[in-house]
Design a protein that fits this description.
The chain has 52 residues and is mostly helical. It has one domain. Helices cover 75% and strands 0% of the residues. It has three helices and no strands. The radius of gyration is 16 Å and the shape is elongated.
Length: 52
């Protein structure tokens, strides 16, 4: 989550002055990180819960 917040802050406080397109790209990457992290965290949840 710290990476996402850092990307958002840097994108709109610093990078947008030099390249608005890069700021938008950084924001998109920051928006994709949390859902991707949730998918990775829950990847093997079904396999580890079974006690056959």
């Amino acid at each position: 989550m710290a990476v996402c917040l850092t990307l958002f802050v840097l994108a709109w406080a610093v990078v947008r002055r030099f390249s608005p397109a890069a700021a938008v790209a950084m924001s998109v990457v920051a928006m994709v990180i949390p859902p991707f992290a949730a998918v990775v965290a829950n990847w093997n949840i079904d396999r580890t819960d079974r006690r056959d």
